[in-house]
């Protein structure tokens, strides 16, 4: 990062080192769980492109546990923040920027194992003749196809415990933010059972905001893997696979229509293959589909997708 003399420096080397270590720790644990290795794709933007920088995409397809999943690290620099990044900060419109983060989505093969998303990121705007403006974002959310109360409670409790050292307000506030964000407004329907979400965050100051972001990233494996182990051996058939594909269709709709991360990546000229890594391998859409009353599929809509206090 380049700053003018006298301006505050941002420890991007420290942030980058931790993000790379987080990616490696997560992928190592997921490879052990799946039994198959992740593909490693290191990439670098060509000189002269709109967006500069590079990253490491780690991807699995047709694994034993994960039908498709990826854990991406990216570190990019651009000449002007895209609209999605300045919607809440109009005073930074047009500023150069640097962004880095780890983002992941896992689509398991077994419909009883939930899809999960997690990301942690840092954004640094470089407005002319001003100190850099740094903020953080991140969180994780769970998208089950078949609901289990103990799984929902576990996932939310781990997130609550990770955020507790940073204030009693953080979990309920970020939980509400997640419920509101991961919501398909065009269908009046939640994407899943939520988790935590925060963005444009620097209110604790740089050091504590960064430590809070790290705490969320560090909590991911503890939040997700115990659920995987409870559900991965459950028997399923064509009915469950068909419902999984239907709900994956909702996942696609959210990511393409509402997700700020997808919009940021595409608006800034990001790497399309990495941005759309989050898409499931198979999804379906059925006209006016309604699950039969009293079924496990119907319970997802009546008992799990409506906003609840899980802890």
Query: Which class do the helix and strand fractions yield?
Result: alpha+beta
Q: Report strand order across the widest sheet.
A: 1-2-3-4-5-6-9
- CATH fold group: oxygen-dependent coproporphyrinogen oxidase
Which CATH-level-2 architecture? 3-Layer(aba) Sandwich
Summarize the structure.
The protein is α+β, with helices and mostly antiparallel strands.
Search tags:
single chain, 311 residues, alpha+beta, oxygen-dependent coproporphyrinogen oxidase, seven-stranded antiparallel beta sheet, two-stranded antiparallel sheet, 10 helices, 9 strands, 39% helix, globular
How is this fold's topology laid out?
Elements: H1 12-34, E1 39-44, E2 51-61, E3 66-78, H2 83-86, E4 96-108, E5 115-126, E6 133-143, H3 149-163, H4 170-181, E7 183-184, E8 189-190, E9 194-201, H5 205-218, H6 220-231, H7 238-257, H8 260-267, H9 272-275, H10 296-304
Antiparallel strand pairs: 1-2, 2-3, 3-4, 4-5, 5-6, 6-9, 7-8
Describe the structure.
Helix content is 39%, strand content 25%. The protein has a 7-stranded antiparallel beta sheet. A two-stranded antiparallel ribbon has the order 7-8. With 311 residues, the chain is α+β, with helices and mostly antiparallel strands. Strand 4 (96-108) and strand 5 form a beta hairpin. Belongs to the aerobic coproporphyrinogen-III oxidase family. Homodimer.
């Amino acid at each position: 990062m380049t700053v003018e003399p006298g301006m505050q420096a941002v420890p991007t080397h420290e942030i980058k080192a931790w993000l790379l270590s987080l990616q490696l720790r997560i992928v190592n644990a997921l490879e052990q769980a799946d039994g198959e290795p992740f593909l490693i794709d290191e990439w670098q933007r060509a000189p002269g492109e709109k967006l500069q920088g590079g990253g490491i995409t780690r991807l699995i397809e047709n694994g034993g546990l994960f039908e498709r999943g990826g854990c991406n690290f990216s570190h990019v620099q651009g000449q002007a923040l895209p609209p999605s990044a300045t919607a809440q900060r109009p005073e930074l419109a047009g500023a150069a920027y640097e962004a880095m983060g780890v983002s992941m989505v896992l689509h398991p093969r077994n419909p009883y194992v939930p899809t999960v998303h997690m990301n942690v990121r840092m954004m640094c705007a470089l407005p002319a003749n001003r100190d850099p403006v740094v903020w953080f974002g991140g969180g994780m959310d769970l998208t089950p196809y078949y609901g289990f109360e103990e799984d929902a409670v576990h996932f939310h409790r781990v997130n609550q415990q990770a955020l507790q050292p940073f204030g009693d307000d953080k979990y309920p506030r970020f939980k509400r933010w997640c419920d509101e964000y991961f919501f398909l407004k065009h269908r009046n329907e939640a994407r899943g059972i939520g988790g935590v979400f925060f963005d444009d965050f620097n209110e604790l100051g740089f050091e504590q905001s960064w430590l809070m972001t790290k705490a969320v990233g560090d909590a991911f494996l503890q939040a997700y893997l115990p659920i995987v182990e409870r559900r991965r051996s459950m028997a399923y058939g064509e009915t469950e696979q068909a419902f999984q594909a239907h709900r994956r269709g909702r996942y696609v709709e959210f990511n393409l229509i509402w997700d700020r991360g997808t919009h940021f990546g595409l608006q800034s000229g990001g790497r399309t293959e990495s941005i759309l890594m989050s898409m499931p391998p198979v999804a379906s859409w059925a006209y006016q589909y309604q699950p039969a009353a009293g079924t496990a599929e119907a319970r997802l809509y009546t008992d799990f997708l409506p906003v609840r206090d899980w802890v």
